[in-house]
Amino acid sequence: MKTDNRPLFFAAALLAALSLNAADWSQYRGPNIDGTTAEKISTQWSVGGPKALWKVPTQDGFGSFVVSGGKACTIITRLQDGAPQETLVALDANTGRELWAANLAAVAKYDGGGDSGAEPNKGGDGGRSTPAVDGERVYTLSSHLVLACFDVKSGQRVWSHDVLKEFGGKNIRWQNAASPLIDGNLVYVAGGGAGQSLLAFNKTDGKLAWKTGTETITHSTPVAATIHGVRQVIYFTQSGLVSVAAQTGAPLWKQAFKFAVSTAITPIVGGDIVYCAAGYGVGSGAYKISKSGSDFTSTELWRIIGNQPVANHWSTPVYKEGHLYGMFQFKEYGNGPLKCVELATGKVKWEKAGFGPGNVILVDGNVLALSDAGELVLATGTPTEYKELARAKAVTGKCWSTPVLSNGRVYVRSTKEGACLDLSPKTAAR
Question: pTM higher than 0.90 for the full model?
Answer without folding.
Answer: yes
